Here is the input.
Amino acid sequence: MEQQQSPAESGARVLVVDDDPTVAEIVSGYLDRAGYVVDRAGDGPEALARAADHWPDLVVLDLMLPGMDGLEVCRLMRGQGPVPVVMLTARGDEDDRILGLEVGADDYVTKPFSPRELVLRVESVLRRVRRAAPPASGVLRAAGLRIDPAARRATKHGTELALTVREFDLLAFLLRHPGRAYTREELMREVWGWDFGDLSTVTVHVRRLRGKAEDDPARPRLIQTVWGVGYRFDPAAGEE
Here is the structure.
């Protein structure tokens, strides 16, 4: 069996956006040594210009940029096309971290961080994006939702859902396993592929997904909270 190339081995392009030249240089150096093609930008307008010249496979984006902040850069870039984003947030501030996830970041790393950990996070996100759907999985349908893993398209009652990479993976996983309650630890392992990490990542993604997939996100019926356990997908509730 032919071994699949890693994202770095296949020459994935990463755009590093940070106004701190030292941080940008260190991050770029580690990614370059890992085999990635690296572009750099020091602010939002430069990031958008570089992305227009060479569309990246992934963006490492500092949240606190001068002028146009990372949230706006993420919104504008996502308006041009789908792209995974790993957000850099300062000092683990929870509000900043949640803001990054809510605007659609696929992962985040808090400063100060280990450059090796960042490279691992980049690889993890890119593997998720590039992973081919199992041939036997087929199209998933439940409660008006239609998920096409091969095309990575999700619709509800025929209307396309604008999902991030992780939101799509989470929804597809839940549709494949209806009726079973999963802990946040299990979801992080099964969907994110991590055996470590901040479990609030799962909580924020569930909240965002409810905002897109539920008729009334304030009273979710499809993605239900199982108190003391985690979450369960209940397709029957959406068909009542």
Summary: The radius of gyration is 18 Å. The longest strand covers residues 85-90. The chain has a mean pLDDT of 85. The first helix runs from residue 21 to 33.
